[in-house]
Amino acid sequence: MSKKKSILITGGAGFIGSHVVRRFVKQYPDYHIYNLDALTYAGNLENLRDIEASPNYTFVKGDITNSDFLEKLFSEQRFEGVVHLAAESHVDRSITDPLAFVKTNVIGTVNLLNAFRDLWREDMWDKRFYHISTDEVYGSLGQDGLFTEETAYDPNSPYSASKASSDHFVRAYGETYGLPYIISNCSNNYGPHHFPEKLIPLFINNIINLKPLPVYGDGNYTRDWLYVIDHAVAIDLLFHKGRIGETYNIGGFNEWKNIDLVRLLCAKMDHKLSRATGTSESLITYVKDRPGHDLRYAIDASKINKELGWKPSVTFEEGLEKTIDWYLSNSDWLQHVTSGSYQEYYKNHYGS
Ligand code: NAD
Ligand code: TYD
Asked: I need a labelling partner for 88 at 20 to 30 A (CA). Which of 17, 165, 220, 341 fits?
C-alpha cells in the first residue's frame, strides 16, 4: 500500500478551519490530515466531533509561535502540503491587544514558512504552501469599486496589518527561496461554528437571549458575505488547482450594509422563534463606533471564477437560513463557548 500524503492544516479547530478539515478528511482518503491548533478561545474540538475518529485524521495541539516545536513536527511528519489558517482573527480584539496578533499572525506564519523551507530545501517544487488571508488587507473602499488581486495593500486595523504582513512574508519566501505558495484573500464568512464575537453569530445569540444588538456607529458599513462551506470548497480547489505564486480573491458577490443585514436577521429570527414581528428589531442599539472602522469591503472574484469555475453555491437567504437553523439546534455548543472567559470579554467590550 502506498503511503498517504501528509497534509498539515493549521487552525483547524476554528471556524473556517474546521470546515476545511472536514472537507479534506472526507474528500481525500489518500491524505493523512494533521490539524494543528493551539485551542485558543476560538478553537474548539467540538467543531470536529463527526470526523475525529476518521483513520486519516490526527489532531495535534500546538502553538505556531513555537519554532522548535514546528521544526520537530515537520521533520517527523514531512508535510507535503500546508493549508495555513491559524490566526488571531477578530478586529476588536486586535484593537485591545495588537501584539497577540503580531505573535501569531506574523511570527507564527514566518515560523511555519521556515519549517516548510528547512524541510524541503531543494525539493520544494512539487510541494505546496497555501496561506489563507483576508480582503481586509486592501483597506477600505468608498461607495464604488471592488478589490481585485492588483489592489494595493492599505490595512487599517492591527488585525489587517498583521495579515498583510504575513501575506508579504509568504510572497517574499516565494521570491527569495522559491517556496511554492498560493495566497487567497476572502471576504467575511458566516455559517455554523462561528464564534459569537463576530457580527452574525453574536447577534443570533443575543436575539435568542433577548439581549441588545450593538450596532457600531450608524450601521452604514458594508461587507461582502460568503457562506463558510463555499469558502472551504474554494480552498480545496485552489490547493489542488491554483497556480503557484498567485493570489486569488474569494467573495460572495453579496454586499450588505450592516443595518440592512441586521434587520433581515431580526425578521428571520422572529419568524423562527415564533415571536411577534419587530421583537428582535427592538433590540437594536446603536453604540460607539469601532476606531478605524473600514467603510466598505467588496470583492471581485472573477479570477477564481474564470480559472477554476468557482462561484458561491448558496444564496445569502439560503445560507442565513442554514446558519440560523444550526444555531437554534446547537444550543449546547453556544452554551459551551459563551461560558467562562467569553463573559469577561463581553463585559469588557460591550460594558454589560
Ligand atoms: P478563528 O478565530 O475562528 O480560528 C482560528 C484558529 O486558530 C482557532 O482554532 C485557534 O485556536 C487557532 N490559533 C490561534 N492562534 C494559534 C497559534 N498561535 N497556534 C496554533 N493555532 C492557533 O478564525 P477563522 O474565522 O476561522 O479564520 C481562519 C483564517 O481565515 C484566518 O487566517 C483569518 O485571517 C482568515 N479569514 C477569516 C475570515 C472570516 O470571515 N472569518 C475571512 C477571510 C479570511
Ligand atoms: P465582524 O463580524 O467583526 O467582521 P469584520 O470586522 O472582520 O468585518 O464585523 C462585521 C461588521 O459588523 C463590521 O462593520 C463591524 C460590525 N459590527 C457591529 O456593528 N457590532 C458588533 O458588535 C460587531 C462584532 C460588529
From this structure: 220
